[in-house]
Amino acid sequence: MATKPSMQNLNGKNTSDSCHRAHNEAVYKKPLGLFSQNPVTGFYRDGYCRVGPEDTGNHAVAAQVTDEFLDFTASRGNDLRSAGITAGCKWCLCSNRWKEAMQAAKGPDDPVVPKVFLHATSESALKDLEFSDLKKFAAPPENASHTVRRGVQNPSQPIVPENGGDKVHGGQN
Q1: Cis peptide leading into 141, omega within 30 of 0?
Q2: How far apart are CA 104 and CA 34, in angstroms?
Q3: What is the pTM of this model?
Q4: Tens of pLDDT, residues 91-140
Q5: CA atoms of 67 and 65, how far apart (whole Å)
Q6: Residues 48-63: what's their mean pLDDT?
Q7: Residue 95 CB: number of other CB atoms within 10 A?
């Protein structure tokens, strides 16, 4: 017999009434994609990086964490390892913590900045972050498979390299 998944947020409160008020669009202005059921992530623990009025941390950024990021966030008082999160886990991160990691990065390939899954990153991340920064750290193939024009996704149109070439950059943006 199947059981209904728990609808408790990080504070243990029942969120079944507030889920419908959560931001349900991704940064591409399309429906927010499911991000992770193992571990079950999201402020509402439903696998989505939804953000609602109770989520004052703006857990909007869908990212795959690294050991370097886990060390970084632990050094700032949020030890995700104590919650069972390990490198490689997909987790909804607070937008400001992801921004702090980006600002602390020593370069564009610094693993302290977790790769972002744009299809599952809530539009509310844009309150704290620039879309161009999220895109710069997008996980392949998302960093080369979409183009955005005035906030609208067009997945059928490839990104053309700035040099005018006929190849799409495959994850090296």
Answers
A1: yes
A2: 29
A3: 0.72
A4: 999 999 999 999 999 988 999 999 999 999 999 999 999 999 999 999 98
A5: 7
A6: 96
A7: 24
